[in-house]
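User: I'm putting together a teaching handout on how multi-component assemblies are represented. Below are the sequence lines for each component of a complex, exactly as they appear in our records. Could you produce the 3D structure of the whole assembly as structure tokens, so the students can see both representations side by side? Please keep the chain order the same as the input.
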Amino acid sequence: MKNVTLTFTCLLLAFMLASCSQGAPAEGANAAVSAVPVKGQSAVKDDASEQNILNVAINSKDHSTLVAGVQAAGLEDVLVNAGPLTVFAPNNDAFAKLPEGALDELLKPENKDKLARIIKYHASPGSYSTEMLKDGTNLYMATGHYVKVERNGEEIRVGGAKILGTVKASNGIVHVVDTVLLPPD
Amino acid sequence: MKTPTGIHSLSMLLLLGVGLALFSCGQQGSSSQGGALADDVASQVYVAPGEYDEFYGFFSGGFSGQLSVYGLPSGRLLKVIPVFSVDGEKGYGFNEETKPMLQTSHGFVPWDDAHHPELSQTDGETDGRWVFINGNNTPRIARIDLTTFETAEIIEIPNSGGNHSSPFTTQNTEYVVAGTRFGVPYPQKDVAIDSYAENFKGMLTFIKVGPEGQMDIAFQVLLPAFDYDLAHSGKGASHGWTFFTSYNTEEKNTLLEVNASQNDKDFIAAVNWKKAEEYIQQGKFQEVPARYAHNVYSDKNHTATSEMKDKVKVLLPSECPGLVYFLPTPKSPHGVDVDPTGEYIVGNGKLSADLTVHSFSKMLKAIEAKAYDTEIAGIPVLKFEEVVAGIVKEPGLGPLHTEFDGRGHAYTTFFISSEIVKWKLGTWEVVDRVPCYYSVGHLMIPGGDSQKPEGKYMVAMNKITKDRYLPTGPELNHSAQLYDISGDKMKLLLDFPTVGEPHYAQGISASRVMPNSKKFYPIEENEHPYRAMGEKDARVERSGNIVHVYMTTIRSHFAPDNIEGIKVGDKVYFHVTNLEQDWDVPHGLAVMGANNAELLVMPGQTETLLWEPKREGVFPFYCTDFCSALHQEMQGYIRVSGQGSDIALKWGLGEPEPEQ
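Assistant: Of course. Below is the structure of the complete assembly, with chains in the same order as your input.
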């Protein structure tokens, strides 16, 4: 204990000397700058505005797995930004179709980048309403891949995943799909 | 605010370091950079990114005609609200909806000189509902709504010239007042200027403020043609009275610099407005013809209307005993400031060596005892020694304004000696003084002219800033200087440049304003006659050479974005409805060759741009407010054909569906 106190006193003395010769002001200013709190746009509290894509997903009980994935991948802020984004949102049943254990593996912190890439493969910049999703349209996804739209009467498939329903969000459009899309590579 | 524990302890450690540095180096001169920082002044004004300021500051733009909103203590500029001057950035005064806001009896007046912001009050405390501000040049008072931070209403003041002693409020915002700085002929007429003493008058105006803020001129009080400079209403014990300073009681009309400084004492006019209400009730007024505009903006149809009023009620003090008294006050008093208890009335005699403080209770006794020196135009002049409470002896040179901290202190600005002096109410002793850089006019303590000052910070508004900032040619921005007044000694914390002239400001705890700030206008409540409630409603209609474009915006396109069939000589009205229902997502519209400005349309709002094409061609239009990742794609074309052309009116968005 005594040693600890002594060391601390020495440190203090050293600091006092340093602050006199090198100028405490800079230290003080840096202290303030380094204390910047980290929080993103998804932390903005706004119950009045139309729901953004993230809130649409959070408020859908069928998308709890997707929301957990988005949070694990650290993509919340992207889904509340100005957009516009079109998100093909796999429901919980879609995730349940993945091989046993695959999802748990993806949710591990060390697989954050991989998970983020899979989720981004479900998003395309722009607002694509169902009318705009014409047969043969190639959608450019956030990973850089193109995904084909197939239209057969009322049924629309994107990369093979069937659109089950559509929700307009403030910053884009959410199409609920029945299958998780996996990037080809 | 929540801070991660690690960062918190780190900053604690560093703060400890700063404390130690201070200890080890000793107290440096506060003028030296190192000393200021070692004193941790920087952290007192540092508001970390992502954190909010503690106070809103509403600073007048002076000759910019606008009102700037700053965060305090950081000095960060949050918004410039257009009030009396057109503003291309927001389309204010350029779009069809806001043009009526700048209508006056002199026609469309696109500029003014805005001096005194005044927050509304309830029970003598700032309540965060509205800010009022005066236009000096073409006498007007504006009300800014603090849910939208937009100008909601402007009323012109008739029988006035130089609307300077305005728009000070009563303690429940029953009235805001407006006193004329310049004597003007009453009624206004073509007379010789040197018939001043005979033909000119000075008018004080009381504007009733309704529960929704709506302004209406209740009555005017006709006084001799002195220059009425500033005002403040009584509070607490003196509630029901309003005090106006005057200079040029000599009633001169030339070289006032010399001629208006002759009298040893000018007057503070004390107006009993509760008495005035009784006289109005009893019908003891003259209803006189007057032309003045009353302009109101509606958040429902997003459009302003301008109505020209034609009469006003005038009270004559000679016929209304007990309505007005004159309090002699030395040497051209400028500010008149009532302390939080309502007992002391400070007259800042700008050419006087001393500060004069009157007593409200003594004033009542003097009135009771009829302790008059004389009468002027039927107005009793009370005996100076019967109303004076005390004198602050030789506090500085050129006193202008005083505000209060709610702890028994007054703070007075001195223009000539460029300083603020803190003194004690009741004992009149000077307890501290600080320099201002340079030539301070008004000062502001949040709530500092109310019954409940929030006496933590004080802002000095300075006219001259040479050597304070990097030079920017002959014109240098005026400055605001922030002081910590929580301790015994005033301490300069920060110095920031401002927009126009920060003539006066008001401050208020952010918590009284922030929760009411609107995020967008509900589209279902939009009552604009030219709204388009969705893209299916978007269309173009022609009637003669008038073309109405019902246009919508949403990230990231206009509907329609291709328009044909317009002809040279048409008047094209772009009515843009922003369909967004999301906070902070305005869209703009700029059309090539427009002779006005852009539109900047808030979510849920409709605004209209008039475009008059003068030549044939195809002209682009685009969104000006960076709205989204595809903002740059938010563009369109309008085709203009010759006057005799038979190109049909046509509009669209996206390729048409192929025929099945």
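A couple of points students might notice: Residues 271 and 324 of chain B are 5 Å apart (CA to CA). The first strand of chain B starts at residue 55 and ends at 60.
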